[in-house]
Each structure stands twice: as C-alpha cells, then as structure tokens.
Amino acid sequence: MHASPCSSLPSASSAWRHEAETAVLAVVGSGEYLAPMAAVDRQLLELVGGSPRVVCLPTAAGREGDETIDDWMHRGVEHFRALGAEAEPVRVWDRASANDPSLAERIASAQLVYLSGGKPAYLHATLESSLVWRAITDVIERGGLLAGCSAGAMVQGERFAGLPRSRRGFGLWLGVQIVPHFDEIPSPIVSAIRRSVGRQLALVVVNANTALVQADGTYRVVGGRVTVWTATHRNDYGPGELPPEALPR
What we know:
Layout: E1 24-28, H1 38-48, E2 53-57, H2 66-82, E3 86-89, H3 95-98, H4 101-108, E4 112-115, H5 120-127, H6 131-141, E5 145-149, H7 151-154, E6 157-160, E7 167-168, E8 173-179, H8 187-197, E9 202-206, E10 211-215, E11 218-222, E12 226-229, E13 234-237, E14 240-241
Parallel strand pairs: 1-5, 2-3, 2-4, 4-5, 6-8, 8-9
Antiparallel strand pairs: 1-10, 6-7, 9-12, 10-11, 11-14, 12-13
C-alpha cells in the first residue's frame, strides 16, 4: 500500500504526513455512517491514501439481532461507497464468525477497518484473541487504519468503562481510556467516570462527529472537539494537531 500526502486536511501542518508501514488509529465519538461524518471520513480515506478498500464490521451489535446487524453493514457500505471508496460488509458478529478464516482473510486485505457502535464488552470479548483480531492487527501493522465509533472507539484504549468497574481494552492507545458521546453525556456521569479512572490513565472524551487520529507519533482532532484529562490537567482541543504533551506516549 502506498500512502499519499493528506494535504486536504484542514489546519494540517506540512509535517503531518502519514508514512506507509506505520499504524493509523482513529476513535470517533458518535455518528458513524451519518451525513455529518462524511467530511471526517473523507479525510480518513485521504490519510490512508490511494484507493483504499474499507471493511465494515457490525460486531458490537452482535446481540441485537439479524436485522440490526445487517442494517449496520448496509449503512457502512453505502456511506463509504458514496465517498468513492471500495467498501464491503464483513459479518463478524459472534465468536464463531470471529474465528472464520475466510472472514479474517477478507479483513486482512483491507486498508481501512471500521468498527461501528454497540456494546463494548461484547465487542471486546468477541474479538479478543480471534483470527479476525489478528487480521485487524495485521492491517494496522502494515500501515492501514483502524477506525472505531462509540464501542469501537472504547475498546481501543487500555481500559473502557463498564459495570461494576472498568474493563481491560486492546491497549492500542497506551495509558488512555476513551469515552465517546461526550457532548451527549450528563456532566455528573462524566465526572464519575473521571474519578473511576484515577490518576493512572488519561481520560480522552470525544464529541459527536469527531475523530481523534493517531498517526506517525502525532495526534490530530478532525471534526469537532476532544477533551483530555490527565492526573494534572484538563484541556479541550479543537480541530488540528495536539501538542506533544497532550497524551501519554
């Protein structure tokens, strides 16, 4: 895969260029596959470069029935095809499908993997140590992009919110717990989550129709706003590159 410069990213400095063979990760607050996300996702496609192939996984909604699973896949494919990408659904919804070699092979050949929303604990349990998760890590290790919205964002962190306590995530964002839907959550709940995280992890909260992108050792907000709480500070960031000290490294 050959990455192309992402010069169309608003407020992007000339130094922010994705190089092939490095992972790209994106966490989205909410709004996957809806019209307001088109501008954000267009920029993610440009960051991957070339003519990327996108696979849409409805795994987080695996307990919601066939109609909901199929609807998530259909919406994802229609959304990315409208943006000019080659897109296909991959019906990974339970442990059996997550360990299906043919599905894993289809995912491994993609350049962008998108995990839509639903139940984060179910998503993590379904994918953990599976053939499909191995295929996803292969994609990002060779310079592809993993994007996740809501539950698909939460599981990328070291831990994610759960009951009665937070749970271990995939650890792709070191030292971070990700909270989506920030502008839709009552502030007392956000404060409670912050207290539960303690001082060991940074809390990254992402608004709707917003992506926080990690690429080439830098972090960039695309769309709306992201808030970062660490043990010592809280900062709000709009579109553009975050300062080096904003997140753990």
